[in-house]
């Protein structure tokens, strides 16, 4: 669909960041979660963030951060968006937005139709919900997809994005089937754990332009 926003998550090098920008990504994501193969220290995330041009939004991904980690992360990295990928509450997100003026996104694991009802609890608290496959080895970035047909007829209560197992080969179908206004991908564009492939980044962004 024309104008689909594209987030490339788990960027870890200047080269892959440049590839995402060149390919037209609207958002690039940096993961600060030590158990992830895509983990960046705050200093490394800040270094990459400094290379993000103004037309692209920098998303910092955190999982149930303590107040200290959250404050340090915002101060050091200066993200445009913080993506909360744990069990953070609507109240916590609303407080974060009020305190920082930054966008707050919340990942939601979609298991069944009932999972989608949770999205409504973030209306007015989050700027966007990211519908993702349920956690397995990691809270996200597992390369697995959920049943997209669950979104058929779904009346989204706030801005949203589709994540989980998206690749250059399936993203066009995903957009057609779900009408997602934003697609987010990570492991499907890697050539080895934690390292993205510049050709796959380009192919993914191209495939979203349907
Ligand atoms: O990517 C990670 O390593 C990660 C670790 C902990 C929490 C979330 C994580 N990623 C979240 C993302 O935004 C991913 O892009 C999203 O889950 C989709 O991942 P994938 O299925 O690999 O495309």
Label the CATH architecture. Alpha-Beta Barrel
Q: Percent of residues in helical segments? A: 25-40%
N- to C-terminal distance: 5 Å
Q: Per CATH, what is the topology?
A: TIM Barrel
Ligands bound to this protein structure: the ligand O=C(O)c1ccccc1NCC(=O)[C@H](O)[C@H](O)COP(=O)(O)O
Mean pLDDT, to the nearest integer, reads 97
User: Regions with pLDDT < 50 over 5+ consecutive residues?
Assistant: none
Count all strands and give the number. 10
CATH class: Alpha Beta
Instruction: Give a short account of the largest sheet.
Output: 8 strands, parallel, barrel
Please report which band the strand proportion falls in: under 5%, 5-15%, 15-25%, 25-35%, 35-45% or over 45%.
Answer: 15-25%
Evaluate the radius of gyration.
16 Å
| Sheet with the most strands: spatial strand order | 1-2-3-4-5-6-7-8
The H-level CATH homologous superfamily, spelled out, is Aldolase class I
Structural class: alpha/beta
The outline comes out as: globular
Number of helices: 7
Element-by-element helix/strand order: EHEHEHEHEHEEHEEEH
Taken together, the total number of domains comes to: 1
Organism: Erythrobacter fulvus
Keywords: Amino-acid biosynthesis, Aromatic amino acid biosynthesis, Isomerase, Tryptophan biosynthesis
Family: Belongs to the TrpF family.
Pathway: Amino-acid biosynthesis; L-tryptophan biosynthesis; L-tryptophan from chorismate: step 3/5
